[in-house]
Amino acid sequence: MPVGACMVAEAAERAGHSVRVLDLMFSSDPLRAIESALRKKHYDIVGVSVRNIDNNDMREPAFYITDLLPLVDAIRRLTRVPIILGGASLTVMPEEILHATGVSCSVLGDGEVVFPFVLEKFSKGEALGDLPGIAYVENGEFKENPSASMGFSDEFMTPQYHRWIDVSSYRSRMATVPLQTKRGCQFQCSYCTYRKIEGSTYRLSDPQNVANAAARLASSGLRDIEFVDSVFNAPYDHAMAVCEALARLRLPSRFQSMDVNPLFIDNELLSVMEHAGFVGIGMTVESASDQVLQGLRKGFTSRHVHAAAETVRRRRLPCLWIFMLGGPGETEETVKETLRFAETQIRRQDAAFFAIGVRIYPGTELETIARQQGVLSASTAELLSPVFYVSPDVDGLWIERLVKGALQRNMHFMSAVSLNVPYLSLIHRLGYRLGFRPPLWRFTRSIRRGLRFIGMDG
Length: 458
Ligand code: B12
Known about the structure:
This protein has 458 residues and is an alpha/beta fold. The chain contains 20 helices and 16 strands. The strands form five sheets. A seven-stranded parallel β-sheet has the order 6-9-10-11-12-13-16. Strands 3-4-5 form a three-stranded antiparallel β-sheet. The two termini are 28 Å apart. The chain binds cobalamin. The site of cobalamin has 39 residues, from α1, β1, β2, α4 and α6.
């Protein structure tokens, strides 16, 4: 569910503006939807929320900026009012996306804080000038005003989704409701953009406010809640306090988070999570080899990965183990080490996801490493369309073959291929109707068995 766009809409409305959200998620003809919305009514500003640049899939890359161009062109054809871009993708690569779309302004980071200021400036006819948290093009020159750390306001944590989007269409596709307990990330992973998007210092929400937000969602019928923090369980004490506050409220909700770090997982936290109503966690270990974990600068070692597996095995909470093969330091040996870990340490009732290749983002340490190793010749601007890193010490196709073999032996394993199956959306809808609730990966084995039975398992 488009939490960012809804937050921004609500903040703009709270600032006294009249706002309409046009959600293109389920539109069969997005161009037509835009045309009809802009013909019906005059707007003073059009904001566009662009979440993803690409699908992070090296084997079958999808580049979403290509899809964005005709949409922006349609807006331009129908109105001369300013267009403002926002969303995670803009914070990751503002210059490249502004250049590609020909739009002259974007908001960086916390849109619910910055966008009302942008609107105020426009309504007064003032230049955006040195407003923090924007990037713009002036006389052909790209300029970026770093976002001042404006804190993280709890005010817009749970936008009134029903007012902005078609909530039932999301629910019927097993979508979860995103909720943040903080912003910021203090990890230094060599490939990652999280610090660029949310900053490198934590901005923590009051744990009780988070629990109250979950209660508000539950009372409006939204019970499948996904924590979308960069890393849910760091800082540990904060995650613990959030889970304790949730457990005290005894909500009928089902919680999950796809970004749990093995450094800060122990029996106590998992136990409180279970009491709070967690139904699944994603453990983003990436690798079980020290050499690769060091190359990815994960800040933990294979010892932590094994310890986390032991902790998980002692509890009931389902866990999806997330791996990313091919990073700096990866060799045939290290790939085998990680697969060995997955085959021997992960419970059959859990699941494992394998991605191959690491998306290279501009300005990351991975970009530097790739250039030093001579495996990256694309310019920084060319990194907008997806470019991936695979360690020069291992062949990507060899990894693919090995992963394929592991998938054949282990019905609880998945790869990017599993996400690309055309009938995934159908499985979601069918599952929901049959009473299954997210996360769907808990049913990986049954789904794959069913697909294998009808000859459609990858
Ligand atoms: C949690 C998360 C997930 C969860 C989402 C769960 C859920 N229920 O929503 C899961 C694990 C499922 C996931 C999946 C994917 N993700 Co993800 N995800 C994130 C993460 C960590 C947080 C997203 C979030 O909800 N943030 C909180 C909200 C409030 O922030 P926001 O949406 O950015 O909105 C704010 C601003 O952007 C801005 N804003 C937003 N819209 C607008 C509009 C206007 C007009 C303005 C002015 C401002 C504005 O203001 C908002 C409020 O502050 C980000 C990284 C990050 N730290 O941002 C990656 C991120 C968004 N994901 C990314 C990717 C690639 C994916 C996948 C394609 C990966 C894959 N191979 O499957 C899928 C795509 C899923 C999809 N359908 O879109 C990339 C996108 C960049 C890129 N390369 O395309 C990111 C940035 C991570 C990265 N690699 O850098 N993801």
